[in-house]
Design a protein that fits this description.
By secondary structure, the chain is of the alpha+beta class. It folds into three domains: about 110 residues, no CATH class; about 150 residues, Serine Threonine Protein Phosphatase 5, Tetratricopeptide repeat (Alpha Horseshoe), CATH 1.25.40; about 110 residues, Sandwich (Immunoglobulin-like), CATH 2.60.40. It has 15 helices and eight strands. Strands 1, 2, 3, 4, 5, 6, 7 and 8 form an eight-stranded mixed beta sheet that branches. α5 packs antiparallel against α6, α8 runs antiparallel to α9 and α12 runs antiparallel to α13.
């Protein structure tokens, strides 16, 4: 937005300079007109003399004398006019101050008025709303939103305005209002996959992350329009994971991994999330059957690390039996992706599990490949693998990959 403002300002200034320049430096045309008139008269007089010479009305001697007189007189007139101009006796150069003032005032105001009418001035407000600027008070934000709402009351068929309002509501966490705005967009004809996917997201957020019902139906609608829509693929996989259909979840997310083939960083992050959500079932889509067999049936794999997970008494009341429990093993000095993950529920606590190479997410990255392993456990209130405020986690314990004793992990820390 700053770039736009600078560019618009430079364009206005350049236009003003181009228009005002001839008004400030008005050319004095008085002397040019006088010179042209004298030259014209001299040419006419010379033409008459030549005609008289042809008709023998005057002699050649008289013709030369009169011609010299005309040329001398013309030269004297031009010199005299130039001298008077130098002395300031010619018409003075007076800038048109009224025209200059009008241009400098009304051109910028006119440009601003036209932009207000045909442009998108709310973009300035949207920038302020979403920038997390400490100078924007709640009252200011409310005024900005109210202004946009009033605009749509006056122009209810403005699809772009509804799109801007829905994004604003999402940024403010007003998910139900965002959902309503998106439905209005669709009624006005914006039936793109992106709009339906955003509607699915807003509906799920309004339902505290539950994808059942309307959210999954909107996600399916988005995929029917564009089967490779990123947001719809992610939400469809999440909906399947929430009901325990890991096969469908993996199918959707494998397609999403393929869509992200040209963005390796996002692809890697998605693999981490899939690994945490689906546990050992999340082998990559490109893994061969032989690799899966080697992962699951390796006879040389070490026994692994035994972990006992329990919950601190003071945290028990904050948990529900169906809350998701993740037990994670990562390399201390290695890839950020988990080496092994087990997904259980709070109802299983306390529990003792063993994490080994058979639980490896990728065949080439397993517990025995790294000397030091970091172990942790976390209860996710939202069912999402990413830690959020309100989740409860254990301390992280680092051990060697040959550690024989049971590692104790106690869920005692509240994520803030």
């Amino acid at each position: 937005m700053i770039t736009f403002i600078l560019a618009a300002t430079l364009i206005v200034l350049a236009t003003l300079a181009w228009l005002v320049w001839p008004l400030v430096f008005t050319r004095n045309t008085f002397s040019y007109a006088r010179h042209a008139q004298n030259i014209h008269f001299a040419k006419e007089r010379l033409a008459e003399l030549e005609e008289q010479l042809k008709n023998a009305s005057i002699s050649a001697t008289d013709y030369e004398a009169l011609k010299l007189e005309i040329e001398t007189t013309l030269a004297q007139d031009i010199d005299l006019a130039n001298a008077k101009q130098d002395e300031g006796s010619a018409l003075p150069k007076r800038p048109n101050k009224a025209a200059i003032t009008a241009l400098c005032v009304f051109l910028p105001l006119g440009a601003a008025a036209i932009y207000t009418y045909v442009g998108t001035p709310e973009a300035f407000k949207q920038t302020q709303i979403t920038s997390d600027s400490p100078t924007a008070s709640a009252e200011q934000v409310s005024q900005m939103v109210a202004s946009l709402e009033q605009r749509l009351t006056d122009s209810p068929n403005d699809i772009e305005g509804w799109a801007l309002l829905s994004r604003t509501y999402l940024a403010l966490g007003q998910f139900s209002k965002a959902k309503s705005s998106l439905l209005t967009q669709i009624e006005l004809g914006d039936r793109s996959a992106e709009t339906y996917a955003t509607l699915a997201d807003a509906s799920a957020l309004a339902a505290n992350g539950n994808m059942a019902g309307e959210p999954i139906e909107y996600a399916k609608k988005a995929l029917s329009i564009n089967p490779r829509n990123r947001q719809a693929l992610w939400l469809s996989g999440l909906a399947a994971a929430q009901i325990g259909d890991t096969a469908s979840a993996k199918t959707h997310w494998d397609i999403l991994l393929d869509v992200l083939a040209d963005q390796p960083q996002q692809q890697a992050e998605l693999r981490d999330i899939i690994a945490e959500v689906l546990g050992q079932q999340a082998l990559p889509a490109q893994a061969t059957e032989k690799e899966k067999e080697n992962t699951q049936e390796s006879v040389t794999a070490p026994k692994g690390i035994t972990v006992n997970v329990s919950i601190a008494p003071q945290m028990a009341a904050a948990l529900s039996p169906n809350d998701a429990l993740f037990i994670i093993a990562k390399a201390v000095n290695g890839p950020p992706a988990p080496l092994a993950v087990k997904r259980l529920t709070v109802n299983d606590l306390p529990i003792t599990v063993t994490l080994s190479d058979q639980d490896a997410m990728l065949p080439q990255f397993n517990i025995s490949s790294f000397e030091n392993i970091a172990l942790s456990a976390r209860v996710s209130k939202s069912g999402q693998p990413i830690a959020k405020p309100g989740d409860i986690q254990s301390n992280e314990v680092e051990v060697s990959n040959t550690h024989a004793d049971t590692v104790e992990l106690k869920l005692s820390e509240l994520v803030k």
